[in-house]
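Problem statement: downstream parser choked on a complex file, so we are re-checking the raw output for the NAP run. The parser issue turned out to be on our end (a line-ending mismatch), but while we're here, posting the original submission so the record is complete.
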Amino acid sequence: MSVERTPEGRGIGSFACVIHPLNPKQDVARKYPFLARVLPTPLIHFLSRFWPPVYLSRVSGVRSESTGKEASGWLLACPLTAGQMLRLPPATAYRKIVQTGRLAQKLGARILGLLAFTSVIGDGGLTIARRLNMPVTTGRSLTIAVALEELTEAARWQGIRPERATVAVVGATGSIGLACSRLLAPQVGALLMVGREETRLAMAAEMVRAAGAQQVRTTTRIEAIQEADIVLSATNASRPVIQPEHLKQGAVVCDVALPPDVSPRVVEERKDVLVIEGGVMDVPGTVDFGFNFGLPPGKAYACMAETMILALEERFENYSLGKEIETERVREIAQLARVHGFKPTVLNELRELSSGSFLRRENGGR
Ligand SMILES: NC(=O)c1ccc[n+]([C@@H]2O[C@H](COP(=O)([O-])OP(=O)(O)OC[C@H]3O[C@@H](n4cnc5c(N)ncnc54)[C@H](OP(=O)(O)O)[C@@H]3O)[C@@H](O)[C@H]2O)c1
């Protein structure tokens, strides 16, 4: 088995992932505990605008189960908080993300993964990829594949048959929400697409119907998910949008949003509901992230995993870019994830649970 290693992670298999603070106090404390203690949250938001990109750590030990090849890379932080990215003009956020990308280039990374809101704002990475002299991915293709797999498995675990169920997609006009709606629609009893704006929702529903699905309805009222047996949530809201009173008895909710869409109150107050933190994967090998970004050791967000897989494959090319994600890419990256041994964390956890108990995360780092 040949293992390719080069000094400082340069050369084959090297990647960089750009993260940013989701919860200003908690996430800033991971790097600057003193500042997080003394600065009030509004000041953290304000200062994030002027803070330069931050080198967080080296990542090592990502090892393909099939080829034995290793990938290594870096975690970098774009200092803007989720709230700031939504409030600032996209041009300002682009500038900061491009600066972070340039740091990745200097370090020798050969592909850049844009995580959470660094891929949400603006045109889904297209402008950033154009301004940087390196391939970029948002990791959305794998996030979509993983979310759908997790949803199906969690529904089965909860005794729900998707083909008879009403499934709600919250954030259905978005990149992940629309792709998931398109893929889910032919397999479920009825699809409820939830968004904020009627016209955008109507256009999204047309695209889903054009893919052959008939039982598709739209709504701008989050309360309407009360009728859903299964909920997939992928909004770009900076605060939770799903509250305990919105959910049907015994529903399954898969939340892939970063920061999360499901209020912590749901986990506390709705013991009948199964909430899963979607889009998290077990990384093959003995990965050391060198920095606590909020997930337990050995786990990565699916968008990070996509970047690592492309590095292992030496596919140094733009991959999931732009708002519209190709179904073919979703299938391809899911297959590559299986080949290299990346597994959705929730599937293992569900298998380990005894019947009658529920999977509730303490929102580890989210
Ligand atoms: N776990 C992972 O690995 C992973 C990977 C990538 C992304 N993500 C997360 O997934 C989420 C979605 O990403 P994306 O790329 O699909 O973002 P996106 O394309 O910006 O889509 C988000 C959608 O959410 C909608 N929305 C916002 N607030 C809403 C609300 N209150 N109710 C209903 N819909 C609402 C927006 O609607 P409008 O049309 O009105 O704007 C928008 O269409 C983000 O939180 C991102 O951080 C996670």
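For whoever reads this later: Confidence is low (pLDDT under 50) at residues 1-11, 354-366.
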